[in-house]
Design a protein that fits this description.
By secondary structure, the chain is mostly helical. Helices cover about 65% and strands about 10% of the residues. It has seven helices and three strands. Helix 2 packs across helix 6.
């Protein structure tokens, strides 16, 4: 039975969102591949460029990633010298992530692939629909879906 034939799967919000996210991520990854970055790594470097050094937990929350997932994604960035992880200048006990000059350069190099992905997405999906989709997805991300315990 295909997903199209299964009413539960067709109505599952989580499945539809995850499938769409994987599909779009694979598309962006293809266009970012020449830069040596994946979409999540591009997002991490971009967030650090926009916000400056961030504590690991703050960075994870900003990207809506759990700390473990963020950790797996920053290891190759640190290994390649694109980020540094060290003590915060404000509180030496706190570790924060910083974009390096090499990371900023890699981000600039990846920008062309990201621009192409954005343009192609807008061409296929429609610029107005894409903007409306981003707004709707931001609302989803901001929603409180706190799970409650059973009776």
């Amino acid at each position: 039975m295909s997903v199209a034939d299964d009413p539960t799967a067709r109505e599952c919000n989580c499945l539809a969102i995850r499938q769409a996210a994987r599909h779009v991520t694979q598309f962006y990854d293809q266009l970012l591949a020449q830069s040596g970055l994946r979409a999540t790594q591009f997002a991490i470097l971009g967030r650090l460029q926009r916000n400056g050094p961030l504590p690991i937990n703050t960075l994870a929350a900003a990207l809506v990633l759990d700390r473990t997932t963020l950790g797996r994604n920053i290891l190759p960035l640190e290994r390649d010298g694109l980020i540094e992880i060290g003590a915060s200048s404000a509180d030496r006990r706190r570790r924060e992530v910083r974009l390096t000059a090499a990371g900023a350069a890699r981000l600039r190099a990846a920008q062309q692939g990201w621009n192409e992905a954005q343009q192609r997405f807008n061409e296929v999906f429609g610029a107005e629909r894409a903007a409306a989709l981003r707004d709707l997805l931001r609302e989803v991300t901001a929603s409180d879906f706190t799970a409650t315990a059973g009776p």
